[in-house]
């Protein structure tokens, strides 16, 4: 009674208490004979869940209650969803529909829990997770908050997508009372004095959530109104164009001719394809139509005029219209599925669920854009530094005379070439029976009209246009009409060994590496280049791949057909498992990290390496021109920077750059019985199988690889380079650390390699936690799609693509070694997904 009197006094005298939306209490000690009137506050609705003596097994104490402010939510819009009482947990869950709620939420679900000190924490957390999962399935777009006295329990493992907001002490110097929510940055916690003589402080949670419409303001976009008639008109325009007359006078000037053709294409598009300006709201749903918006505006007008009857009538129409609009959109998607139009179906499902929504460009001023452009171009200078840099000498590469450095072709991948211990390709050692036919390089490459047309038809029409303004939709729709002139431009470019400036101009879009970037290095530059140039790059890539096949590193697993991440991880793990089965054995793995690897490619060094392959001199000259004198600018949300000229590196986001990087690093190869170097793009790892402390070969390989990187202008980031030591012996021997450029490399117990978490015990505990957390977060999208009442086939497609793909990622690498506890946990996640789908889903054992 004394606590209720104090609470009533606080609510009358202090606005902070009176204006609370919700008050949650645990250990109420209420029983059935105590009426609600004895524990009610004026202006609040009281909802109780008293302790059940039989179910809890305890005679007194316990009980939870929620007080909902009538000014925040009408009492008729508060409903009890679940009451739970057991020896491990007491729970009360209520659903509210407040007067105001951001459009991204449909309702608010509040759960108040009390976990006794004697409870089994794991059982309590599983019970809470089961209730919350069921409520999220029923209300997929609801804001869910879980608060109460957790004592020794934590929901971080069972509900990993929920964030905990209480950071202050709630009892002495401990934080026992917690609040979890399914929205990040929702609250800020403050302590308040306890009620009466309670040993727990009150916790006041202030809302810090910003609605989506405030975080992402309305944007205006100019879009083209494409139609079948418009496409046919554009095709007819290009069909009747006399390209010879248009390009007359430019003769062999590739830059002028390219500019003329590009300007003409854009001129025709501007005159034939109409445009319109649309406003995009961040919280708009895909089924919102213009008729629905008109009804919403009429509702606003009726409210301002105070016409209650009209407002009530419009509200009824609005409810029916929303239901009809959602039903029409659902049928539209299902019709596309029946017509096997998977791309549009997938696009529609992503819009419904909000999965991988398009993010706005980075905001900033002109000074910020110029600063970023200067930072991205920091490796370039007035003269090409590669021209004055020495070519890597043979002494920097492992010597073939050293018997320790004998290399063997890996069993995982076959190659026609034989590697010697120097890490280079010995073409003369190729077996005649396995050798491919010699490739005779012409004076310069050329492409045919059919090749150009085929590549134009493969373009993704939904991609953004490059700096030249030519949309891939135009190129794809008019492939038959444009392939002739583009073939002429491509062959002219290859013959002159020159890339038009317009084609190699890059628009750099800074993509944040972190959620909240603070410095320039927190952005990754992704280059938008001409789609016409990308067509030429794809055609050239086919020739380069044939000409350099015997030169490529068999242990380079990136950008190769039929080889991927799982092969790289298996190649890493197989020798580790085999070696650790032997007595007195350890394994050391060095994971190298490069600083802006693509941006430090030296064109002259690359050309010298290409000269050792079967690539023709004309093609090499074309590649050098492709990489040098490249104009680039940074585009932010509201501005673009000044242009800068880059002579170093390869632009990220292009077709040729990844392949050129693998060729740049392919002259250092190593594989012996105890050590090997493997690569996945710029992710390089050295594996050393050590026995009886003999690690000289491993250390020498690391030293020579570091020296090779320095001579090839690849900058190692020693702070991010990590080493992992695997030693299963009972009496472990302390290992000496490895130093790179005078800095000791940190030895870690776990490392994320190619998206998979490796640990020095090889029990996959950390990886299982990461998979569970990511898979649990994807369930929200599945629940959202299910609430739309789509057909079961669409649900299955979405589950396979979004949820199961995460759970089974690289499962061939870790599936047989996972702990039974983690296997059970992942299967429980799959079971939750099955309850959303309304069917039984195959467990992890069957997926493996």
Automatic annotation (TrEMBL):
Residues 423-432, 440-450 have a biased composition (Polar residues). One of its GO terms (molecular function) is 2-oxoglutarate-dependent dioxygenase activity. SUPFAM superfamilies: DNA/RNA polymerases, DNase I-like. Residues 385-403 have a biased composition (Low complexity). PROSITE patterns: RT_POL. Residues 381-404, 423-452 are annotated as: Disordered. Residues 492-758 form the Reverse transcriptase domain. This is Reverse transcriptase domain-containing protein. It comes from Nothobranchius kuhntae (Beira killifish). The gene is Nfu_g_1_025640.
